[in-house]
Design a protein that fits this description.
The protein is α/β, with parallel strands linked by helices and 298 residues long. It is built from 13 helices and nine strands.
């Protein structure tokens, strides 16, 4: 346990938020919500085998300016778990239904890992529905067999036996500093992994770790060049999925793209370097910064 113990509840204790479920088309979509409908919609999209709690440390700051929904993707968290392999078009279909259920024709998006992959593809295909986007340690541009196998092995092991140590190991993969994985965060994810349908769900959401499936869903350079939205690519100096140079390459291909590099963070900078992330993120979403930057973290 970290010497500076935190919990999901302590992260949310002073946040005016709600938790619930949307009937979004065929999907029951679980969400954490903060802000109100008078503000622009901001959808926060987590990574593979993740859940809405990836953004508990970001809700309060963003709710001052946005109507914020952090959702559980289908096949994840407590949302509907389809019994078929999940590819990027399936997640995009869910986003369409979520926006329709909320009565919103457009949204800002921030996506981490898988969430960034979905965000980029959505922005490419549906510019009329897309405001500014943030691609946070995004997936979808690389197919590194070692990274894919490590992710599959950790996720599958935790699905087959959601013991404390296996769930903890899966979470530690996300962090530059393993002490950020507190007992409370482990228990939050362990409860999800202990659901009766999780083994099946994990097999379905691991589809993108298959090389053949991944390749037909990947974002090409031309796909990135076709993104019209103002875009911020956030990368970190200790991301386990790929080097900073990949983030720099992605930002250079998107016509209105820019890069921010956050130090001393892994795959979850929004959680691990919250103050820095929130500042950089909001400066971009609110149009307060127009340049690429290297961002030191304490």
């Amino acid at each position: 346990m970290s010497s500076a113990y935190t919990s999901v509840w302590s992260d949310l204790a002073q946040v005016e938020f709600s938790q619930g479920f949307l009937r979004a088309g065929p999907y029951r979509t679980r969400y954490l919500h903060a802000g109100d409908g008078s503000k622009p919609l901001l959808l926060m999209l987590h990574g593979i085998t993740g859940h809405a709690e990836a953004y508990v440390r970001n809700l309060a700051a963003h709710a001052e300016h946005f109507d914020v929904y952090a959702i559980d993707f289908i096949g994840h968290g407590y949302s509907t778990k389809p019994e078929h392999p999940l590819e990027i078009p399936h997640y995009i279909d869910q986003i369409h239904h979520v926006m329709a259920a909320l009565g919103r024709p457009t949204a800002h998006f921030t996506g981490e890992s898988l969430g960034g992959w979905v965000t980029a593809r959505f922005a490419q295909l549906h510019p009329e529905k897309t405001e500014r986007i943030v691609l946070n340690t995004m997936g979808g541009t690389m197919a590194n067999p070692k990274v894919m196998e490590r992710l599959r092995a950790l996720s599958t092991a935790a699905a087959q036996d959601p013991s404390w140590n296996r769930v903890k190991a899966r979470l530690e993969w996300l962090m530059a500093d393993p002490s950020m994985v507190t007992d409370d965060l482990v228990r939050t994810r362990q409860a999800i992994f202990q659901q009766p349908d999780w083994r099946m769900a994990c097999r379905m959401n691991m589809a993108l770790q298959s090389l053949e499936t991944r390749r037909r869903n990947m974002l090409t350079d031309d796909d990135l060049r076709a993104i019209e939205a103002e875009s911020l690519v956030i990368w970190t100096t200790k991301d386990p999925s790929g080097p900073v140079d990949e983030g720099r390459r992605i930002a250079s291909l998107i016509p209105r793209g820019r890069l921010a590099v956050i130090e001393n963070a892994g795959h979850w900078p929004q959680y691990e370097q919250t103050e820095t992330f929130n500042r950089v993120h909001l400066d971009f979403l609110l149009g307060r910064t127009e340049r690429s930057c290297e961002v030191p973290a304490p």
